[in-house]
Amino acid sequence: MDSRREQYIKEFESIFRVFNRRFLREMNQIFGDRLSYSEFLYLKFLDQKGSQMVSALSEEFSVSVSHITAVMNTLVSEGYVNRVRSEQDRRVVELTITEEGKRLITELDSVKDVHMRNSFEPLSTEEIAQLLALYQKLSTKNPSQS
């Protein structure tokens, strides 16, 4: 691998780490003490996809079942999620978003959208499209190519 390419990859790794930390910090700040960004993402997923089992959420977000269970316990206690026994198999418990959870997601989504528009203001539409295409290309990379 040529040294310039290697240097660009190292610089990307560094700036990506800084960008991600800043992004998460900003999201958590704009949501205040109402929700963390990860809680927001889990609620939004439940809102979009409907009832889910803990194992399905764990797989979707690549986190442990125990992590999802702990987060869901918090969201249930806050009134944003309900646990419901499956009609097909009473042994199965599904997680569903409540109306209060839906209202909160709608409100925070609007705040997030304004923040995202402001964050991308320095970039042209073409630059945003290029950035999106590059991330999509990296996201679809075959893991065996690593």
UniProtKB/TrEMBL annotation:
Enumerate the Gene3D superfamilies for this protein: Winged helix-like DNA-binding domain superfamily/Winged helix DNA-binding domain
UniProt xrefs under Pfam families: MarR
InterPro entries from the UniProt entry: HTH_MarR-typ, WH-like_DNA-bd_sf, WH_DNA-bd_sf
HTH marR-type domain boundaries = 5-140
- Per the record's keyword annotation, is Ribosomal protein included, yes or no? no
GO-annotated molecular function? DNA binding; DNA-binding transcription factor activity
Q: Which UniProt keywords apply?
A: DNA-binding, Transcription, Transcription regulation
| Keyword Metal-binding on entry | no
Protein's name according to its UniProt entry: MarR family transcriptional regulator
Organism annotation: Brevibacillus fluminis
